[in-house]
Amino acid sequence: MKATEPTIETYRKFLKSDQWDRFGEMQTDQQKRLPAPPLQKPYPVDAPLSDLVSPADLTVGTLPLRDAINRRQSHRRFNDAALTLEELSFLLWATQGVHEIWRGGIAARRTVPSAGARHPFETYLLINRVDGITPGLYRYLSLDHKLCFLRADPALPGEVSAACNEQSFIGTGAVVFMWTVIPYRTEWRYSFISPKIIALDAGHVCQNLYLACEAIGAGTCAIGAYNQAALDALLGVDGIEEFAIYVAPVGKV
Fold first, then answer.
1. Could you report the per-residue pLDDT of 165-174, keeping only the tens digit for each?
2. Residue ranges of the domains in the chain?
3. pTM check: above 0.85
4. Rounded (5°) CA angle 30-32-33
């Protein structure tokens, strides 16, 4: 027998706040005193790491906020200029930079808001043109403010574009931000309400990227159209406990 097609109400349900009415009826894993998930995905002890410019030493991104907001737009054409290491450091700090680890090490205050300070995202980067950084796939270690090298492959720009439904401009960015989500970081505290929260939190992160790009004379374009299985495979994540959720190429304009 053919499965019943989901209704539009089914798709919209996770966006509605009426689920909070049931929130008090169950115990979350936090309330059960189960261990909180790590704030950062572990990385191999022998992984090659690259230092970034410390947030305290950043000199870029001084454009007034009002001007950055006024200029904000999506860019799908980038020139061939490279980003400096300081500019990349600024973009990473602006989107997932850590101010403070608190609540006994189970929560973090960052440059973007997140419900319950859960911050469920990991930042992966396809680096094509950044001064002093070998092109390849990296992960941003937000707690350490470092880059973790994953692999190099000349085919990566084309593979990223292909995974994003053949949008060829994406692979031309100097850097392509690719965020994954580890849902349990949010589920540990919010259980079945987490899908709505994660969707809201993802928007906070990408908006900060838009404004930070404008502040350094660069541009970006938020991408939600991608092949889930293809992008998960490219990033080397399992698609269940961690999966891709957002993409944004960045380049000089």
1. 999 999 999 9
2. 47-252
3. yes
4. 65
For residue 132, CA distances in Å to 16, 128, 148 come to 46, 11, 14
Average pLDDT over residues 140-152: 98
Type of residue found at 200: L
Where do the DSSP E strands lie in 13-135? 49-51, 98-102, 107-110, 121-127
Alpha-carbon span 205 to 199, nearest angstrom? 10
**What mean pLDDT is predicted for residues 63-81?**
97
| 3-state class (DSSP) for residue 177 | strand
What value, to the nearest 5°, has the Cα angle with vertex 182 and ends 111 and 32? 100
pLDDT-derived band at 74, boundaries 50, 70, 90: very high
Tokens of 152: 């190099």
Q: Looking at the domain covering 47-252, what would its CATH class be?
A: alpha beta
